[in-house]
Amino acid sequence: MAFIDSLLQKCSSFSHIKQLQAYLLTTGHSQIPAHRTKLIEFCSISPIGNLDYARDIFLRVKTPSTNEWNAIIRGLARSNEPNKAIVCYQAMSRHQLRRDALTCSFVLKACSRVLALLEAKQIHSQLVRFGFRADVLLQTTLLDVYAKTGDLDNAKSLFDEMSLKDIATWNALIAGFAQGSRPRDALNLFEIMRLEGLKPNEITVLGALSACSQLGAITEGKRVHAYVQEECLDGNVQVCNVLIDMYSKCGNVEKACDVFDSMRCSKSLVSWNTMIMGLAMHGHGIHAVELFKKMGISGVRPDGATYLSVLCACNHAGLVEDGLRLFKSMAGSGVAPSIKHFGTVVDLFGRAGKLDEAYEFISSMPIIPDVVLWQTLLGASKTYGNVEMAERASRALVEMGSNTCGDFVLLSNVYAAQERWDDVGRVRDAMISRDVRKVPGFSFIEIDGVTHKFVNWDQSHSNWKEIYRKLDEIFSKIRVYGYVAETSYVLHDIGEEDKENALYYHSEKLAIAYGLICTIDGSPIQVIKNLRICGDCHVVIKIISKIYDREISVRDRARFHRFKDGFCSCGDYW
DNA sequence: CTAGGGTTAG
Length: 574
Known about the structure:
The chain is mainly alpha-helical. The chain is 66% helix and 5% strand. The structure holds one DNA strand.
C-alpha cells in the first residue's frame, strides 16, 4: 500500500487529517500530486473529512487533475447541495478537461438526487460521445437516473439496448418500476429475470416485494417469500422489513407478525415502525400500543415515524385517551412533533366527535395548520353532521386556495344530509368556477393472477353486463335486510331514485360483484381502492358478507376493512 | 503508476 494511504487510514478525526497535511508540508511531500489528490479525496468523501476544506485545497491547485475534479464532484454529489456537483461538472467541461467514466458517474448521481432529467440527458449524450457505452456500471447509473426522475420509458429502452447487463442493472429497473407506480412491470421483470436463469439477490426482492405490497398481490408475494427462504435472504433486515410490509398491505397481518417475531437478524427501527403501521392499518390499536411499549423496553428509540404509526393505530381503533397520552409523551422522548403528528391529534378528536376540542387544538398549535388538517376537521364535521364546523373548515380551505374535489364534495354532503339544496348548488357552482381537480376513484381485484380495475360506473370490462346484473341481484337481496341507500353521500341534487343509482355502481361494488361471479362459493374476496371507502359501500359490503357468506377485505387509502358475518373489523369507526 | 463508480425497506 502506498505511503499516503497507510497514513490516511490511521486518521480518526479531522484534526488528524490536518496534522497529516502539516506533516506533508514540512517534509515537502505535499508537492507530490498523488499525495495532494489523496488528501482532497479523503477530505471530500470520508465521514471524518470536511468538504469545504477539500474545496479549499482544490481551489489552490492551479491545474487540478481529472481525479481531483472527480473527488470534489463526488463529495458535492452526496452533500446536501447536490446541484453544486452539476455546476462543478459544467465548469469542468468549460475547462475542456478530460472527463472519465467516474466523472460522469458522480455527476449522474447528483442528477438523480435533484431530479435533473434535462442535465442527465445532456450527460447521456456526452458519454455516448466519450465512448463509455460499454461500461455496465455507468450505464446502470444512467438507467437509475432515468428511473428516479420518472422517465421509466427511457430507463426501459436503455435496459433493452444494453448488451451486457449484470444483477445491479436488473435491480435498478425493477426498483425503478416499483417506486414509479408501475408495480406490475416490476413483477413481470422479476419473473423474466428468473426465467433467464439469473439469481435475484436481496436488493432484487426488495423491489419485487414492494411491488406486491402496492398491488396487494398476496399470491405473488408468497412466491417471492418462498424464494427468499430458499436463498436464505431473510437474514437481511431490509428484506424482513419489506416482507412485514408486504404481508400487512396484502391483508395478512398475522403473517406479518410471524415474520416480525421470527426474525433471526436483529430488528431495526424500521422493523418496529413497519410492524406498528401494519397493525394500525388493520385496526389492531391495542396490539400496536403494546408493541410500542415493547419497543421501548428493547432499547430501540422511537422516531417521528414511530409516533405517527402508533398514533394512527390509536385513531383507527378509537383509542382517544391512549393517543393523546402518546402525543403528549413525544416531548419527553425528544421527538419534535411535525404537522402530521398534529394532524393525527385532530383526527383523534374528530373521530371521537369532539369537534370543539379539535378546533381548539388547531387554533393553539405552534405551527400553521395545513390543508390536510382542515380536511380532517371537515371530514369529521361531515361524519357528525356539524354544519357550522364544516363551514369553518371549508372557509379555511378556500382561503388556502384548495381546489381539491373532495373538499367540496364533503361540504356539499354536509348540506345534502340536511337537505339544504340551495347550499349544495352553491358549492357545485363554486366547483365549476374553480376548475377543481378530481381524483378519480378506482378499485381493483385480482382473479387468477390477473388484475381487474374498475372506476365508478365502469362499463369497459368485457363482462360488464354480467357484473351489473349481479349487482342488481345483490340489491334486491339486501333490501330484504332493511338496506336503504345512504343517499347523503351523493353530491348532486337529484331525485332519490337517481341518487341510489349514483351509488349502485361505485368501483368497489363493481369489483366485489365481479369477485362474487368469478370465485368459488365461500372463498374470500379482496379488493383494493385508491381512495377512502364510501359509507354506503361500507354498509352494502357488510350485508353482502353475511348473505353470500364471504369474507371480504377492502384495503382503502388508509386501512383495511375486513367484512365477515355482517360486521366490519373497523367497527364502523374510520 | 493503480483503483475508485451503479442497484437497497417504513
